[in-house]
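Bench log. Compound arrived from synthesis this morning; before running ITC I wanted a structural hypothesis for how 4'-deoxy-4'-aminopyridoxal-5'-phosphate sits in the protein. Inputs:
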Amino acid sequence: MKDSIQQDKQHVWHHLTPHQLFDNTDPLMIVRGERLSVWDCKGNEYLDAVSGGLWTVNVGYGRTEIADAVREQLVTLNYFAQTAGNLPAAEFASKLISKMPGLSRVYYSNSGSEANEKAFKIVRQIAEKKYGGKKYKILYRERDYHGTTIACLSATGQEQRKAQYGPFAPGFIEVPHCCEYRSQWGDVDNYGELAANEIERVILREGPETIGALCLEPITAGGGVIPPPKGYWEKVQALCKKYDILLHIDEVVCGLGRTGKWFGYQHYDIQPDIVTMAKGVASGYAAISCTVTTEAVFNAIKYVDSDPKMDYFRDVSTFGGCTSGPAAALANLQIIENENLLENAQKQGCYLLCQLLALKEKYALIGDIRGKGLFLGIELVENRNSKVPVDESVSAKVAALCMTKGVIIGHTNRSFTQFNNTLCLSPALIITEQEVDSIVSALDFAFSQVSDTLD
Ligand code: PMP
C-alpha cells in the first residue's frame, strides 16, 4: 500500500485539489466500497454521505448485479460507434423514456459536461436552421454549474470556478439566482415570481429573438443546494412558451431518484424540451450520460431544409458507443425499481431533514437548511441576523471533523468569493434510518466543536 501512496503522490494529479496539501500528508486512497461504506487503504471505514464525493453512487457500492450485467455485455460486445445501434442502448433508451413523459430521444455520451455540450450544440443548430442563426444565445443562472469544459463553464454562474480559465465562449448570458435565503429584495411573499421576473428582464434586454434556450438545474447543486422558490417554475415555463425559448434542464445531479422522483423537474409542473443527466444514470459503475429531447427538438434537426449534406446532428462521441454504460444503467434502473428507492429517498430524506432541523434549533451557525429528498444543504452563517456567510475554512473544518467520526460529507468549495458556506448531504438512496442517525450524530459533534450552542 505504501507503494501505491508513493505512486499516487508522484504521478497522480487529483481533481479539485491544492496539491500543497500532500507536502505533509498522504492523499486519501479509497480501496473498497459496500452499501454506503467505503474503506481507505489504511483500513479505516467511512460512511459516505455524498455518494462517492460527487453525488453519483445512487444505488450504493458493491452491486454485483450491475458488475455482472456489465461483464456479460463486455464479453458479448464491448463497443461499436453509436452510428450503429446496440442492444443495451436501445433497451435503456426505451426504459428511460418511459419515465419521462413528453420526451422521446436519447443521445449517449460519457459525462455531464459532454451531455450539456450536446444540448448547447442542438440549440445552436436549431438557431441556424430555423431562425437564420439569430436565436443562438443560451441563458444560464447565477450559482448554477453545468460542467468543466470551456462552453459549460461559460454557462456556469460561479465566479471562483471560472476564474483564470477565460476567455469564455460568447453567447452565454447570466440570469440572477433564485435563492430565497439570499433574497435580492429582502423578505417578500412572492420571491419565486420576482426571481422569474428577473429572467424576463434579461430576455427583454437581450431581445427574445436572440435567445434559443434557458438552461437551469432543477435544484442548484454545487452552487449551494438551492431548490426553486414557490411560483418560480410556473413563471419560467410560461416565459419559455411566450418567447419561444427551449427549456433545458440539467439533471446531472438530480436525475435518477436523488430527490425522490425519477427527475428533479418532475416535482414541478413543467415540460422541458431538453434534459441532460449523468452521475446517477449508472451510479458510477460505468461512464454514461444522456441528452434527452422531445420529438419536436429531434425533428427540428432531422428535417432537411437548406442543405441536405449538412442538416443533421453532425456530432459524435467515441465513448458514447461503449455498451458498458447502458448495460450498467439498465441494471441500475432495475435496482431503483425493485427496491423502491424513490420511496426510500422521500422517506429517509424527510427523516434526515427533520433531524437537521433539530440541529438548527441547537446551533446558531446553521442559517438555512434546504433541499429535496436525499439531497440536502446546510448553509452556515456567522450570525443569523446578519446572515454573514462563514468562511470556507469553517465548512471545511466541519467536514474534517465529520471525517474524524467516520462520516464523509460535502461542502461548497472554491466556487464563490463569498458563498463557499454550504454543507451537502446526498447519501445513497438505499440509506436506512440508522445510517441517517450516524450522519446526524457526526454533524452534531462537528457543530459542537466549531460553534456555541443557542441555549
Ligand atoms: N451539471 C451539473 C449540475 C453538475 O453538478 C456537474 C458535475 N458536478 C456537471 C454538470 C458536469 O458533469 P461531469 O463532471 O460529469 O462533466
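What the model suggests: The CA atoms of residues 83 and 440 lie 48 Å apart. Residues 65-338 form a domain with the Aspartate Aminotransferase; domain 2 fold (CATH 3.40.640.10).
ITC booked for Thursday regardless.
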